[in-house]
Amino acid sequence: MFTDQTVSVVIGGTSGIGRAVVSALSARPGTVHALGRSTGLDVSNPAAVARAFAALGPVDHVVITAGSQAPGGSLTALDLVAAKAAFEVKFWGSVTAVQAAAPHLRPGGTLTLTSGFLARRATPGTFVKTAMNAALEATVKVLARELAPLRVNVVSPGLTDTEAYAALPAEARQAMLDRARATLPVGRAGHPDDLAKAYLFAIDSGFVTGAVLDVDGGALIA
Ligand SMILES: NC(=O)c1ccc[n+]([C@@H]2O[C@H](COP(=O)([O-])OP(=O)(O)OC[C@H]3O[C@@H](n4cnc5c(N)ncnc54)[C@H](OP(=O)(O)O)[C@@H]3O)[C@@H](O)[C@H]2O)c1
């Protein structure tokens, strides 16, 4: 139940999937805070994250989508410093945000994290994403027990057309989307709004906790 007093926070809400969640939540009563480095919050800085939640006061729903970048390529050629930096943002940043947010969550509150389909798909050259997303999916199940009756879930997106791919040359980005069209059972890549629905489902569904919600166009069965 959303009221004018409901407070939601989306870390990563300044772009892509997180921004679509902000927009969906903004259609409901209450306040939505979209946070990211561009609004002054870096999840790899635990003191800053703790300060941000202390300043916000009581909150109802926290969504974390921060951290879409990770180095690819085979392990033999991998830049381990970059790999650890990716973990620092996505895995440890998510854990940091949960630790900072949990004491401020009102009864009935939710935390919804983000993993990715590579967590359970063995694809050469992607082990950093596989490892950090799998770690998050395992962690969420433990946190859902530790923090109960707060509910903790994770949404696992498939390929979704967002700013995360802005650095790709236009042709490579188009080729990636064409591949999704050709190979995914749903015949297309995801749109941020497809994903936003899953975060709202996790927030709204009082019987769902410790769940991994696959919203991937069928990537794991293709
Ligand atoms: N798009 C896909 O195909 C796909 C597939 C599988 C999984 N995912 C996962 O879905 C999530 C969202 O991806 P997206 O495609 O929406 O990415 P995106 O458009 O690049 O958005 C990432 C968001 O994270 C924020 N962010 C990045 N580093 C941060 C930091 N250190 N501290 C705070 N905020 C930070 C960014 O905001 P600032 O720049 O303002 O910091 C931005 O709002 C990610 O976890 C990604 O791994 C995406």
Question: Could you give the order of the helices and strands?
Answer: EHEHEHEHEHHE
CATH architecture: 3-Layer(aba) Sandwich
The CATH H-level homologous superfamily: NAD(P)-binding Rossmann-like Domain
Largest sheet: 6 strands, parallel
Query: Rounded to an integer, what's the Rg over CA atoms?
Result: 17 Å
- What strand line-up does the widest sheet have? 2-1-3-4-5-6
CATH class: Alpha Beta
Query: What is the share of helical residues?
Result: 40-55%
**What is the mean pLDDT?**
97
CATH fold assignment: Rossmann fold
Q: What is the number of helices?
A: 6
Bound molecules: NADP nicotinamide-adenine-dinucleotide phosphate
Spans of at least 5 consecutive residues with low confidence? none
Total strand segments: 6
What is this entry, summarized?
Helix content is 41%, strand content 17%. It has six helices and six strands; from the N terminus they run E-H-E-H-E-H-E-H-E-H-H-E. A six-stranded parallel β-sheet has the order 2-1-3-4-5-6, sandwiched between helices.
Describe the structure.
This protein is α/β, with parallel strands linked by helices and 222 residues long. It has one domain (7-208): Rossmann fold. It is 41% helix and 17% strand. It contains six helices and six strands. The chain has helices spanning 16-26, 46-56, 80-101, 127-146, 170-183, 192-204, and strands at 7-11, 31-35, 59-64, 105-114, 151-157, 212-215. The chain has a six-stranded parallel beta sheet, sandwiched between helices. Helix 1 (16-26) packs across helix 6 (192-204) and helix 2 (46-56) runs parallel beside helix 3 (80-101). The termini are far apart.
